[in-house]
Amino acid sequence: xxxxxxxxxxxxxxxxxxxxxxxxxxxxxxxxxxxxxxxxxxxxxxxxxxxxxxxxxxxxxxxxxxxxxxxxxxxxxxxxxxxxxxxxxxxxxxxxxxxxxxxxxxxxxxxxxxxxxxxxxxxxxxxxxxxxxxxxxxxxxxxxxxxxxxxxxxxxxxxxxxxxxxxxxxxxxxxxxxxxxxxxxxxxxxxxxxxxxxxxxxxxxxxxxxxxxxxxxxxxxxxxxxxxxxxxxxxxxxxxxxxxxxxxxxxxxxxxxxxxxxxxxxxxxxxxxxxxxxxxxxxxxxxxxxxxxxxxxxxxxxxxxxxxxxxxxxxxxxxxxxxxxxxxxxxxxxxxxxxxxxxxxxxxxxxxxxxxxxxxxxxxxxxxxxxxxxxxxxxxxxxxxxxxxxxxxxxxxxxxxxxxxxxxxxxxxxxxxxxxxxxxxxxxxxxxxxxxxxxxxxxxxxxxxxxxxxxxxxxxxxxxxxxxxxxxxxxxxxxxxxxxxxxxxxxxxxxxxxxxxxxxxxxxxxxxxxxxxxxxxxxxxxxxxxxxxxxxxxxxxxx
Length: 543
Ligand code: NAD
Known about the structure:
With 543 residues, the chain is α/β, with parallel strands linked by helices. 39% of the residues lie in helices and 19% in strands. β1 and β2 form a beta hairpin. The protein starts with a helix and ends with a strand.
């Protein structure tokens, strides 16, 4: 039992805690958690169940076909067409999914619209919606390991990060918004005494949600949960590279009591069904996470159709600024490695650009390289590995090309740089550190979305700020300093949606996540996310 607990607790990878916790401490935690008479949380029970035989049993199950989910029914594409779904673990076909067309998207949007206008969800008392959403979160938690393994099989994230960052995170997010539904009031505006001026929050109607392949459940829940909480009906377009866990979770919503048509999913190619959703005349809001290129297209689709509101969570090239007075340089080095190597850097807020004060640059880079050795890359369902596969073949090619272009352009290959486990057919790559990079290099300006850290030294605070703000992106940033006034000063000068000081935590659902500049608009997470899916209805009553 002690061994199981150590494995599970090492796992808080998404929150950057894993590297902070020693095995000794974990043994202590295990003892205190399982002390007689002490209650064990649901989440703790799930971690206790994580062992290799259970994972292998789940892995050996036949992967389901990725069907569409419309009106609470699993349906194939109207044409019957299917796409292959490749597993990044070994490059082999895992299953197939519906290769839908615009007509399938029309059917899903029609089901969503009909449910919205019928009021089966939108007019349901908020406390009742809350009850169903909380039940949904419970079901996700009850099936967490099965959902996580299914997700790993199609996107390659290591099982520990997947369990924490996918079903468990999604359940937390769904509960957070469910619990908020019946605690928000409307407003009365302070106008003339002979008028009663009301602001009522109303659901917008039909919300389209487009999800990427990295952390599809976590990111999907950040959009589905607030949109549903305020009474909208939703149509999801899962990533064609990683749809299986999302589809399973959407089915569980129906099992929890969500009425037919309220939450639907349509699978298929982005350029076909994603476009159909973006261009649809009966979709009121579109919420997207993915690449900047597709984000740009969605804005065009909106302009060409019904001018629907479009919220974009796009890429990043987040800076990590390390000053010599950082409170704990060893900790900073470990979290610097975590910020770019966990999940192979396929994390929107990955701190892919490192800038270190020159006086500590050489020493610090060796500390980061030492920390990089902790990332054991391989089969993501093997608990001996901390890091899994890149999500698809294109992603592996992108990483390899970025590394070779960087060295051609003059960067120094300081650590890693090689593809791994080529014989198994999967998509694996070493954590890689490039030093002495320069502003003009592609690896500095363009998102790799892989385990590639681009590092250099700075001399002054102003230089550090210039480095932080030198790209078109502005999603997140990290800052290490002991000086409180510098932390505040720099935090307001760095152009990014989030600034993390003396940690790389990823923050939690209470804190907004959104980009500035070309990293997007609007924020996921926090109570503010509810506002994206509502209209302010003004009622002006002459008394
Ligand atoms: P992607 O843009 O290629 O695909 C995202 C989704 O858009 C997929 O479901 C895809 O099918 C769909 N799509 C593709 N073409 C489309 C089109 N023409 N019209 C409509 N939909 C279309 O992104 P990806 O490769 O799946 O994910 C990686 C990207 O996501 C990276 O750029 C990363 O930075 C970004 N990302 C951002 C955040 C954030 O919160 N800011 C989080 C995670 C990932």
